[in-house]
Amino acid sequence: MGIIAWIVFGLIAGAVAKLLMPGKDPGGFIVTILLGIVGAVVGGFIGRALGFGSVTGFNFGSFLIAVLGAILLLVAYRMIRGRR
Question: Based on the structure, what is the number of domains in the chain?
């Protein structure tokens, strides 16, 4: 996938993760995009390591892995931000 596709995919995955985990998070739109993009990468890495697959394109399995990765990053982000 190209860089624009990763940004769009990350935006969608980050928005879905934010909808599944509502709450007050600083950063807004930019942080949502970054969490989605990095979540897709992290989810793909973890999924591949566990044998579930990876983020290979715009399909349901890749989307699910990207959303789970974004949720994982959102939880970590909230834990780190909560300590301050």
Answer: 1
Longest CA span, the chain: 38
Q: Show the domain range for 22.
A: 3-82
Supply the Cα-derived Rg of the chain in whole angstroms: 12
Q: Provide mean pLDDT across the span 54-71.
A: 76
pTM of the model: 0.74
Distance CA 18, CA 2 (A): 24
Q: Give, in order, the Cα–Cα distances in Å from 51 to each of 3, 45, 54, 78.
A: 25, 10, 9, 28
Question: Is 62 within 8 Å of 70 (Cβ atoms)?
Answer: no
Q: What is the DSSP letter of 56?
A: -
Percentage of residues in the chain having pLDDT higher than 90:
0
Q: Taking the chain, what is the end-to-end CA distance rounded to the nearest angstrom?
A: 37
